[in-house]
């Protein structure tokens, strides 16, 4: 896999991990069972916004990045977005707890795990020093990439922000 760019077909073998939200395990201290999320299959006929962060519960990610998507979720839906997903290298338990800490319920935003940053490394957008996922955003429209940008400035949330994505829809 190489860096994603507009016009590319989203890879056909992308699998993340996550813990589906449920009413009975909605409390932050509740654990669910991680399952594989076959993104390539799930997203093949949908408009998807995928944004990636270096780590759950980190300052920039928790204060500047995720809240923008939560706030703009209605605007993203108005633009025809079916799925919004955040990705980090953290395990599915941490990602699930992070979603609950942000009071995200149901499938409003999927909190997905990229174990070992496999996907991010595959597209060349993992941090070489830490091995974590990079900070980036991708719009996938029925299997085709229409937007793909990575932040090159440490701590910046510009190209991968909800506002930048909205402007590109």
TrEMBL record:
Thiol-specific peroxidase that catalyzes the reduction of hydrogen peroxide and organic hydroperoxides to water and alcohols, respectively. Plays a role in cell protection against oxidative stress by detoxifying peroxides. The active site is at 61 (cysteine sulfenic acid (-soh) intermediate). This is Thioredoxin peroxidase. GO terms for molecular function: thioredoxin peroxidase activity. CDD domains: PRX5_like. Belongs to the peroxiredoxin family. Prx5 subfamily. It holds the Pfam family Redoxin. Gene3D superfamilies: Glutaredoxin (3.40.30.10). It comes from the Eukaryota. The keyword Oxidoreductase applies. Keywords: Antioxidant, Oxidoreductase, Peroxidase, Redox-active center.
């Amino acid at each position: 896999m190489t860096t994603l760019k507009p016009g590319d077909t989203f890879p056909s073998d992308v699998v993340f991990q996550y813990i589906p939200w449920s009413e009975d395990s909605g409390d932050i201290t509740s654990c669910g069972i991680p399952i594989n999320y076959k993104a390539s299959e799930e997203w093949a006929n949908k408009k998807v916004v995928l944004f990636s962060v270096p780590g759950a519960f980190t300052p920039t990610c928790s204060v500047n990045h995720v809240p923008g998507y939560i706030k703009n979720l209605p605007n993203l839906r108005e633009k025809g977005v079916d799925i919004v997903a955040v990705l980090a290298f953290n395990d599915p338990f941490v990602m699930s707890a992070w979603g609950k800490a942000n009071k995200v319920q149901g499938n409003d935003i999927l909190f997905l795990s990229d174990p070992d940053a496999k996907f991010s490394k595959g597209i060349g957008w993992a941090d070489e020093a830490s091995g974590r996922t990079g900070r980036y955003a991708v719009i996938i429209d029925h299997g085709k990439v229409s937007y793909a940008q990575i932040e090159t400035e440490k701590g910046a949330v510009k190209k991968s922000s909800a506002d930048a994505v909205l402007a590109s829809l």
